[in-house]
Automatic annotation (TrEMBL):
InterPro entries: CHP03086, DinB/YfiT-like, Maleyloyr_isom, MDMPI_metal-binding. Residues 11-135 form the Mycothiol-dependent maleylpyruvate isomerase metal-binding domain. SUPFAM superfamilies: DinB/YfiT-like putative metalloenzymes (SSF109854). This is Uncharacterized protein (TIGR03086 family). NCBIfam families: maleylpyruvate isomerase family mycothiol-dependent enzyme (TIGR03083), TIGR03086 family metal-binding protein (TIGR03086). It comes from Cellulomonas humilata.
Amino acid sequence: MTDQTSTWTVLDQSHRALREAAASVPSDGWDRPTPCALWTVAQVLQHAVGDQQGYAATITGEGWPTENPFEPSGQLAGDPVDLVESATRAAALAWSTVPADGPDVTTPLPVGPLAPWVGASACALDAAVHAWDIAVATGRPSPLTPELAAALHEAAVQFVEPLRGFAYAPALPAAEGDGPVEALLRYLGRSPSWTP
């Protein structure tokens, strides 16, 4: 796999996490349940790929997903690792054209244009949290580092609330001992202790 960089560190780290999560799924792991209720590992991967394509296409005007990311079929149209590699490469290349000090940028999110750092972080959040979904569903350690989770959480508070019930579940209460990873997951409506 290549490691296409975007000039957005948080996006590069999140893309790496998604690529590694996809590459670590065992051959019998694609039908396993995930923290995304009613979706299998294959469906989460399809959703994540479609979302990365959507972010890229919103910037470039081309390469839109061919399947609705919110209605994934679970039928992977190709090698999963290649699908993730292609989608994250497209997103990284698209975001590399967005200057940090530029005007607000349109994303696939129905919340209006976002500051470039927030938009890039929204794309990153999608990749990172679904990397976590895939990893925990297949018995792998969390790919989220405290530093990455803290950066993603800072951005998430800028756009998640209007998307509750559509893209994000209600936030879960904080628990004693939570660090940045747990805080981010609970904010997104995920239990840090989720198991299949």
